[in-house]
Each structure stands twice: as structure tokens, then as C-alpha cells.
Amino acid sequence: MPHVAVVADDMTGAADCALAFGEAGWRAHLELGDGWTPFPGDDAHAAAAFSTDARASADARAATERAVRAARAAGADRIYLKVDSTGRGTLADQIAGARAALDDPLTVICPAFPAVGRTVEAGRLRVDGREATEGVAGADPITPLRSSDLTVLVPGARTALAGATGARTADRLPAEPSDSPIADRLLADDSAAREEDRSTDGASGPHADRLVAGASGPLILDATTEGDLDRLAVRIADLEERQPVLAVGSAGLARALARVWHSAPHDVTVPAPGTDLVVVSSLNPATRAQVAHAEAHGAVHGELDVERMSDAELEAAVGDLLRSGRPAIASTSAPVAEKTSLGGNGPDLATVPRGSAEPTEGVGAQRIAQRLGAAAARAVLAERPGVVGFVGGDGASAALTALGEPRALVAGRIAPGVPLLRLPVTGLAAWTKAGGFGPPTLLTDLIFPVR
User: Residues in domain Four-carbon acid sugar kinase N-terminal (predicted)?
Assistant: First the structure.
């Protein structure tokens, strides 16, 4: 039976993808150790997700290649490369590393996640209908997005969409009416190929063969709806019958592929359990707005100067928050440059320089997030709260690793993009959330759920 390894650029994305496979009926978990545990030898459809923490890493290519090779050695039949849905970070290096480990397979890239407003249109990344660089992705203090054009972010990649009108590229694509013209032009690179497909009775016409034979680099696919991703997943599965394919995307495409590769769907929605502590390592403006809203509605908030505090001081500060008797948020203080640009009044995207952070600044911010996560884990082990939330992949990765858990089990979904995890060794429940999405009310809703 299929065993899928999700190699993710950060911990929150890994957890999102583990949830995606769990929703489709797979036995899914999140790897928290240094590598992969062997996949089961039984007939279970198993999926495991592992974070390389490669998004802001100078070692992204090598780290991704190592993770993919190790996953194959552990028994994975398929690799899914999870990247940021807004294209932030070391996208090209991650793809290059995975391709090297898999001997240069046909590579299909679609980071779209329409359920949370992230789409790909004409090869360009958009968030809530706007160019991705114009929103919080462009203002990210650690990995600011420098271009919305995926062909710029992944040199050598080409868009596989052309032509003003389209037709289905395989009879096996779902027959329901398309809610987007993009779906009808999947993998169509010229009008002659489309004409060949119209005249083909087989499951995968000569255009698919031409695509495989002619692919000289990664292919970028558009998607603006969940239906687009479903149809793309069917096409990927069809192509896999003839040659290895590396699928690259966010949790959006992971959800679609999980259903196509093996579908035994069940509802994994669970009520938000209330949260004792939220550890916020993300500096994303969207997260800062959420923290401000939650604090205004009763959460106690400690903004910690991680750069100047010792590890012992950080642990003590988080412990104090846990003993406050109220739901608590521990976050990193904004860097001085960000405080100046924001005027001390919270996130203002109009004043945040786009793409201004240097790589060294990103590495420094990553280390700060990791120190906060590790200190929070020590405080959690001492105080033993019931439920802990993590916002931001670097802090989540450091904290979950420091808790000493080899893996986390997917328990359900408490909100879109917010999986609930069970940690079997400590008995804790934890949830994770990426820093760059969600309305200002999201943290408040997670901390103070309405019963």
C-alpha cells in the first residue's frame, strides 16, 4: 500500500499536510525527531510529514535532499514537497534538492491553497486576489517575498498554461462542469496538443506523452479553486503511471492528492479545546494583528525581548505567564527596525519595506524564534498545561522537538489551517498555525472558543 512522505519547509506546514492526509483516511502523523521512523510493513495507507526548517535556511538544498533520500530509505513510495503557499523562502533550493534526490523527475509546481485565499494565476502568486508581494508575504520580516512570478522564484521553471481557450487534456479528468477556465487548460502547452487530446479515446492522450517527453524543467500550474486542484491531482496520478512525478505545493494540493491517491474521507473537525498558552514566534503582520485582538479580549500577553534575555529568564517568563490564571500569549518582541517602521502602533503594511530583509536578518530572526520555542517547551514541561498553541514554524519546530516527542498524532482540525495534535509521551494537546494567514479574530477564537 502507498506510503507518502511529506517533506515540508516548516513545522506548521508539515502539520497542515499531515492533517490533509488524515482527512482523506490515511494513517497520518508528524515526525518530530531527527529523521524518519520506518513506514509500517502492513497494508495501511500511511503518511508522515517532516519539517526540514528549510524556508529561511542557507542549507535548504542539502537539507531537502537529505530528507528526501532518508524518506525513501524509510520506505516512502511517494514524496510530496510542501512549500510556502505565498512563495516565501528558499523555494528554488528546496525544489532543486528534492529533484536531485529523486534523479530529476517530472516536477509539477502549484502552491495554491484557495481555501485560505492563496491562488496561482498565469504563473503568478496571489493572496485574496492581490499580487502576493503587495500583502503580508512581501512584508515578512524573515523571508519577504521578492516577486509574485513563480518563473522568477524558480529559475528554469516554465508555465504549462497557454492559449485563450481550452479543452480537457485527459478523458479521466472529472466530468463535472468546471468552475474555472484554468481547469480546462491544465498542462496544455499549445493548441495542437489540445486538438490531439480532443481526438483521443484513451485515459491519457498523446498530449500527456508529449508533456513527459518534452519536459526540460519544473512546470508551473495555475489553480484558483479547490476544483482546479482536484483536477490537477488526477492528472498527476495519471502521469505517475508512466514516470516518476514530484508534486510541489502547499497543503492545498496535498489535500487533493491525498484524496486521489487513496480516499476514505471522514470528518476530522473537532471543537477548539481552549488554550492555556500560545507561543508566537512569527513576526508576520497578520499574526501581530491577531495577538493584539486576543490581548484586547482578555488574554495576558508577554512580549519577550529574546535577544537580550538569557534562556533561564525566558523560561521563567513563560512560566509566569502560565501561572497567571488566564490564557496566555508569549511572543517575541518586534525588531527595532520593524518597531520604527510601524511607528509603535502595530502592523501597517503601507510602511513596511517590501523585500527589505537581508538573509542574515532572516537567520537571526529564525534563531530568536527557536530560542523562544525551546524555552517555552521547558516551561511547559514544568507547568504541564493542557493545551498549547504554536504560531510560526520555527518556534513550533524548536518547541515540539524540545518536548522530547518522537512524533505527534493528528487528532483533528479545529479551524481551517489549524490542526490539533496529540503528543503521546507528555499527554499534551497542541495546535499549530502558520503566521501569515487568518483574520484578526482567529487567535481570540482559538483561545476563547464559543461553546
Answer: 5-257
Share of the chain above pLDDT 90, in %: 67
Look at 76-85, 198-207, 401-410 and tell me which has the smallest mean pLDDT: 198-207
240 backbone dihedrals φ, ψ, rounded to 5°: -65, -20
pLDDT-derived band at 206, boundaries 50, 70, 90: very low
- Which grid coordinates are listed for 329? 500569549
Vertex 131 angle, CA 16 and 360, to 5°? 70
- Alpha-carbon Rg for the chain, nearest whole angstrom, is 22
Q: CA 49, CA 32: separation in Å to the nearest integer?
A: 9
Q: Which CATH class is domain 3-166+215-261?
A: alpha beta
pLDDT tens track for 345-370? 333 333 333 333 344 455 678 899 99
Q: Does domain 277-339+362-447 have CATH number 1.20.1560.10?
A: no
- Where in the chain is CATH 3.40.50.10840? 3-166+215-261
The alpha carbon of residue 278 and the mean position of all alpha carbons in its chain are separated, in whole angstroms, by: 19
- The grid coordinates of residue 38 equal 520506518
Strands 78-82 and 387-391: unpaired
